């Protein structure tokens, strides 16, 4: 049931706290008190279990999941309605036609909904993230190329990636390849600087400088349907074949079973212009080599909605990939025979129960296994090749409690425990194991003019190795404070700020990789400051929504982990010598126009200016120079036209010049670029079947550019998507 309101309401946020605001542009829905998105969907969280041979700790994980299931069953049996009792409405959330939650956030938050992702002309999560302000995506080109995200120049290791509310970890490298995630089953993509406004979340979400959260689709059934079926097929230049299938089955009133999968294959042999000669005065037209990629993704879940106050989510995930690793286009050729194989399996679960209006409890569990094999058949070593295999395992448990002291004052306590192991086929490998214990205590206060929150994170890290010496154990406290002020009651104008002191642990590669690793490394520390202004309003029927955000920030990094030659020019080691000062401004705007009832025009864009200076060595060659691969200016923009007959969209990316090394020399420079894309789509309903056809032209101007030096990006291409939903 929905109803339009134009009066002031008290609306509960995802952490079940009340906020007051004018809901003129929104629709109000009665929903369960689980974590919800601005579109009214539940954030599904899950536990991971193994179906193979289970180690002792995994038995404990499974036992924990079984306890979750037993608890679920017991609570379900206790659901008796007391007719003499007065029940309060448990939760109200907002399905917003426009992004108002982001401009009310205490820390900068950017969101792309499922509908907005369709108009961005993107295939993978990595493509969409490029359109967020203040983000640098390192892209080695093509569908199969490595893609990592850095937020406000802090480095990819400082950005946490969450999947349905539980973080994805990689202790080996400390960073996540976001190119592996498709957008086919994504409902919402959000990026938060510092941390999100939601204090009721696992402790891991307090432990990073920024959070990229991928929220997958939650089943919704209309017209008393019990089955939803959706299939799509994408094809494009460079041999892309990408079919996908989604099935959602409603078992009964409480249980839903979703499953989806996709296959992607592409040769990636796109043309590019190779420049060579002493002054790049010569060039030739070449094709990229060793770019073939094949991957498979499959997911299955079980959702239990027992009442308005009790939910359980379970998801199993499988991913495998086989891809060539293209070489840098140096020395007048780009031949490469290197290959990489990846596999990843995880099972994750989450149970949430609201006992009353004061207490909410949530538990999560996860088991994760990943495998990576690297092959270089041309390496001239003792065996004539290089072939390395790595195996990671993770066991993760989490529990969180929320206590509402008053209607506008809440406190939360979250504690997480995890074990990470890394094995490899390397000689004299350390075989490290990391034991992590994180506890976060947070509070939040909300009234008509002020929203404020504070938290402190306690981190305890212990490490063990099978061979050699282990890194030191760590103990650290990390504070966070944020606030948002509304000085004028009649205007949706806010002033926001946050402060955060956080760190990132050295990865296993940093600590234990051959002669490069250094077990004496300290954590890399980061201090973040942010001051911003936000404004939004409805002007009239022609301009139903306008929003503007502007944030100035200062980040200071010390003990930055860098590689330098230690014994000689050929033996490098990781050390804590790096210092970086980062100052910048992010500006974003949004406007919606509706000249006629059936015609809507959406315009949005963002601009980033930042000075990320190397402060490591006063008087050195790179002192006070822009750090590598960080443009001074960057931005993006989108325009969409929605009509009953056809939808049109346009998007662009812009980046100023960058340098591949710390010295700002001409030979290190990468020129500025802009990438433009357009699309046309049409939806058609034939009886009970919804169909859509989308045609996209990517890199419309056929720009020859590089994001990473000597790794050219694809030129102009065409992508066609056909989709059927029943």
Topology:
Blueprint: E1 2-4, E2 8-12, E3 18-22, E4 26-30, H1 56-77, E5 92-96, H2 101-104, E6 109-113, H3 114-118, H4 125-129, E7 135-139, E8 147-151, E9 159-163, E10 166-168, E11 186-193, E12 210-216, E13 227-236, E14 240-250, E15 255-266, E16 271-276, E17 282-287, E18 293-307, E19 310-324, E20 339-354, E21 359-376, E22 386-406, E23 409-424, E24 433-446, E25 450-464, E26 474-485, E27 492-504, H5 508-512, E28 524-537, E29 545-568, E30 571-596, E31 599-614, E32 633-642, E33 647-655, E34 658-659, E35 669-670, E36 673-686, E37 689-698, E38 706-708, E39 711-712, E40 717-725
Parallel strand pairs: 9-12
Antiparallel strand pairs: 1-4, 2-3, 4-5, 6-11, 7-8, 9-10, 11-12, 13-14, 13-40, 14-15, 15-18, 16-17, 18-19, 19-20, 20-21, 21-22, 22-23, 23-24, 24-25, 25-26, 26-27, 27-28, 28-29, 29-30, 30-31, 31-32, 32-33, 33-36, 34-35, 36-37, 37-40, 38-39
Record keyword descriptors for this entry.
6% helix, mainly beta, Maltoporin, Chain A, disordered N terminus, 5 helices, 726 residues, globular, 40 strands
Average pLDDT figure? 83
Strand content: over 45%
Envelope shape: globular
Tally of separate domains: 1
Largest sheet: 22 strands, antiparallel, barrel
Q: How many strands?
A: 40
Q: Note the total helix count.
A: 5
**The CATH H-level homologous superfamily:** TonB-dependent receptor, beta-barrel domain
Structural class category: mainly beta
If you consult CATH, what is the topology?
Answer: Maltoporin, Chain A
CA gyration radius, whole angstroms: 25 Å
């Amino acid at each position: 049931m929905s109803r339009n309101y134009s009066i002031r309401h008290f609306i509960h946020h995802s952490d079940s706290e009340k906020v007051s605001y004018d809901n003129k542009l929104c629709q109000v829905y009665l929903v369960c008190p689980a974590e919800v998105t601005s579109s009214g969907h539940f954030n599904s969280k899950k536990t991971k279990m193994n179906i193979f041979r289970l180690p002792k700790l995994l038995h404990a994980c499974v036992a924990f999941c079984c306890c979750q299931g037993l608890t679920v069953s017991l609570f379900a049996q206790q659901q008796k309605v007391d007719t003499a009792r007065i029940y309060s409405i448990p939760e109200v959330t907002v399905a917003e036609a426009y992004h108002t939650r982001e401009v009310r956030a205490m820390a900068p938050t950017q969101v792309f909904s499922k509908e907005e992702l369709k108009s961005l002309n993107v295939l993978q999560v990595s493509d969409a993230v490029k359109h967020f302000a203040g983000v640098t995506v390192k892209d080695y080109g093509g569908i199969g190329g490595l893609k990592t995200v850095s937020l406000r120049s802090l480095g990819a290791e400082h950005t946490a990636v969450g999947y349905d509310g539980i973080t994805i970890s990689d202790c080996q490298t400390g960073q996540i390849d976001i190119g592996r995630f498709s957008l086919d089953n994504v409902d919402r993509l959000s990026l938060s600087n510092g941390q999100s406004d939601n204090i009721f979340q696992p402790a891991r979400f307090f432990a990073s400088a920024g959070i990229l959260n991928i929220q997958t689709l939650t089943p919704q059934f209309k017209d008393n349907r019990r089955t939803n079926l959706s299939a799509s097929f994408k094809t494009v230049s460079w041999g892309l074949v990408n079919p996908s299938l989604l099935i959602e089955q409603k078992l009964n009133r409480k249980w839903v079973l979703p499953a989806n999968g996709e296959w992607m294959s592409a040769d990636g042999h796109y043309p590019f212009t190779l420049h060579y000669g002493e002054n790049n005065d010569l060039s030739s037209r070449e094709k990229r080599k060793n770019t073939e990629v094949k991957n498979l993704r499959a997911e299955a879940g079980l959702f239990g909605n027992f009442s308005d106050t009790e939910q359980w989510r379970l998801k199993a995930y499988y991913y495998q990939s086989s891809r060539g690793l293209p070489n840098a286009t140096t020395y007048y050729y780009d031949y490469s025979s290197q290959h990489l194989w990846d596999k990843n399996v995880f099972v994750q679960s989450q149970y949430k129960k609201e006992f009353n209006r004061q207490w909410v409890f949530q538990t999560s569990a996860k088991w994760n296994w990943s495998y990576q094999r690297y092959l270089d058949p041309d390496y001239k070593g003792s065996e004539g090749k290089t072939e390395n295999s790595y195996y990671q395992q993770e066991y993760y448990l989490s529990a969180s409690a929320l206590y509402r002291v008053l209607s506008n004052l809440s406190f939360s306590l979250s504690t997480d425990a995890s074990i990470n192991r890394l094995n490899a086929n390397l000689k004299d490998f350390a075989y490290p194991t990391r034991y992590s214990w994180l506890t976060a205590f947070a509070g939040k206060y909300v009234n008509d003019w002020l929203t404020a929150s504070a938290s402190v994170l306690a981190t305890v890290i212990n490490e063990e190795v099978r061979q050699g010496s282990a890194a030191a154990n760590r103990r650290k406290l990390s504070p966070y404070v944020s606030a948002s002020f509304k000085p004028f009651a009649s205007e949706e104008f806010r002033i926001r700020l946050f402060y955060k002191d956080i760190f990132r642990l050295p990865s296993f590669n940093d600590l234990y990789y051959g002669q490069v690793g250094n077990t004496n490394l300290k954590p890399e520390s980061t201090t973040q400051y942010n001051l911003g202004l936000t404004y939004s309003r409805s002007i009239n029927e022609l301009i139903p929504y306008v929003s503007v955000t502007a944030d100035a920030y200062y980040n200071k990094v010390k003990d930055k982990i860098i590689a330098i030659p230690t014994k000689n020019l050929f033996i490098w080691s990781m050390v804590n010598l790096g210092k970086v000062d980062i100052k910048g401004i992010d500006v974003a705007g949004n406007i919606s126009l509706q000249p006629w009832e059936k015609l809507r025009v959406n315009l949005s864009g963002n601009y980033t200016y930042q000075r990320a200076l190397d402060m490591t060595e006063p008087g050195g060659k790179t002192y006070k120079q822009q750090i590598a691969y960080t443009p001074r200016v960057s931005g993006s923009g989108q325009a969409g036209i929605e009509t009953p007959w056809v939808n049109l969209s346009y998007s662009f990316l812009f980046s100023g010049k960058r340098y591949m090394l710390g010295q700002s020399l001409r030979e290190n420079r990468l020129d500025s670029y802009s990438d433009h894309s357009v699309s046309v789509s049409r939806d058609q309903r034939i009886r009970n079947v919804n169909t859509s056809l989308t045609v996209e032209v990517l890199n419309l101007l056929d720009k020859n550019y590089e994001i990473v030096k000597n790794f050219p990006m694809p030129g102009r291409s065409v992508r066609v998507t056909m989709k059927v939903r029943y």
